[in-house]
Structures are given as structure tokens and as C-alpha cells.
Amino acid sequence: MKHKGVLIVVSGFSGAGKGTLMKRLMQVYDNYALSVSMTTRSPREGEEDGVAYFFSTKEQFERTIAEDGLIEYACYCGNYYGTPKAYVEQQLEAGKDVVLEIEIQGALKVKEKFPESLLLFVTPPNAKELERRLVGRGTESQEVIAKRLARAYEESEGMEAYDYIVVNDVLEECVEEIHRLVEAARRAPVRREAFIKEIREELKEFSKGAEE
Ligand code: 5GP
User: Is the residue at 123 inside a domain?
Assistant: First the structure.
């Protein structure tokens, strides 16, 4: 199925600043819609149900999988995370560019299902900065931070699978870079099939003239 909007997958190490980046992207441009995922992890302080995530039990989550209600799902640090299907499809049909902020296993599944999707990997300029941001966030224990840093190393193995690596150093510049990549993706031949067909038909008429 060809969608009107661009399906954008944004992954990156935990602490790379994806959340802040996406929030800013939504504030600056109005063509984006952010998908809210479902998860079995507990809410962090200040996280609202239906805004940060749809927080659910393992049973609810597994029922949603069985009902084919998710585009993709993955297990990350012992919890389920998944993308509800209905919202994404509605928004793409309405012409919105939909952002999925998901980890790599999910990203690869999305690329498989929707080859025309745009996969972006957000990273801080270096590993030390990643550690600094995770500690500075102050929402996780030492143990969780260590787990996330170890996971970051594993995830670095998958960076080559993405279409673009985006270095998040200066927030505003990074937002602009992401927006430019989305605009460029809109011009890719897989998204311009109708245009290609039309101009080819027109050119065919010229070529007939030349043959005579
Ligand atoms: P956090 O617990 O820090 O909010 O998220 C942990 C990881 O799960 C992050 O890398 C985040 O991008 C990813 N994630 C969030 N929602 C989804 C989802 O719907 N599907 C997948 N595959 N990963 C998700």
C-alpha cells in the first residue's frame, strides 16, 4: 500500500535526545504526527497515560498482538513495546508524516513491511556524552543506566541498517536536518510513481513524433 505521508522511524541510543528532538520537530512543523506506543513498562514520573505511552499489562499487550493491532512490537530491557496500527494508518492516509520513535528490532520490521519508510538513527556526538545525558536525566537508577549503556553497544551493531545517521549535538540544527531528510524522502522514486508514469506517457508522445 502506498501512503500519502512519509512513515519515519526514529531510533537511537536511550539518552540520545530523541524525545526532545521529536517534541521540537512537532512544535516547529505541523506536517508531523507522533505515534504513541503501547508498553508494559511502568510510567516514569510525569509520564501520562495516552501521551507518553499507552501503559498496559502484559495480558492486554498480548491480546493486542493476537488481534493484529500492532504494526510491530519488540521486547526491550524486559518490557514489551509496540506501535498501534490504527492511528498510524489514519494519519498517513490523511497526508501526515508519521514518526515512530522505536528501537532497532521494531525499525527493521517496519522497513520490511513498508520499504518506502525513512529510517533515521539519532546519536550523540560520542559515548561519553551519552553517559552524561543518561546520568543528567536523573530518572533511572545506576543499574538501569548501566543496562542501557550496555544495550547501546549492542544497538550500535545495527546502525548500518538505517538510511541516515543523525548526530544530535545542537538541537535546532538537528531538527532542521531531520526535516530536510523527510522532504528529500518525499522525492524518492518509490514515492513518485504517479509522477514518473505521467511524464513517461508524455515523453512517449514525443518519441512517436521523432520516429515518423
Ligand atoms: P523508554 O523505556 O526509554 O521510553 O523506551 C525504551 C526503548 O523502546 C526506546 O529505544 C524507544 O524508542 C523504544 N520504543 C518505544 N516505543 C516503541 C515501540 O512501539 N516499538 C518498539 N519496537 N520500540 C519502542
Answer: yes
- Cα of 32 from ligand 1 centre, angstroms: 19
Closest CA to 122 of 111, 107, 144: 107
List residues near ligand 1 (CB under 6 A).
Answer: 14, 37, 41, 72-74, 76, 81-83, 101-103, 105-106
Alpha-carbon distance of 117 to 3, in angstroms, equals 10
Ligand 1 probe mutation, 10, 11, 37, most atoms within 8 A of CB: 37
- Ligand 1 centroid from CA 88, angstroms: 16
Q: Would you write out the chain's pLDDT as a tens digit for each of its 212 residues? A: 456 899 999 999 888 889 999 999 999 999 999 999 999 999 998 999 999 999 999 999 999 999 999 999 999 889 999 999 999 999 999 999 999 999 999 999 999 999 999 999 999 999 999 999 888 888 788 898 898 899 899 989 999 999 999 999 999 999 999 999 999 999 999 888 899 999 999 999 999 877 76
Query: From the CA of 29, how far away is ligand 1's center (Å)?
Result: 23
Please tell me the distance from the alpha carbon of residue 11 to that of residue 6, in angstroms, as a whole number.
Answer: 16
**Number of domains making up the chain:** 1
Which one-letter DSSP state was computed for residue 53?
A: B
Residue 2 lies in a domain: no
**Residue at 175 is within a domain:** yes
Domain that holds residue 116: 7-211
Q: Please name the residue whose Cα sits nearest to atom 14 of ligand 1.
A: 102
Q: Counting beta carbons within 10 angstroms of the beta carbon of residue 18, is it exposed (0 to 12), middle (13 to 18) or buried (19 or more)?
A: buried
Check which CATH number belongs to the domain holding 96 and give it. 3.40.50.300
Answer whether residue 61 is part of any domain: yes
Residue nearest atom 10 of ligand 1, based on CA coordinates: 103
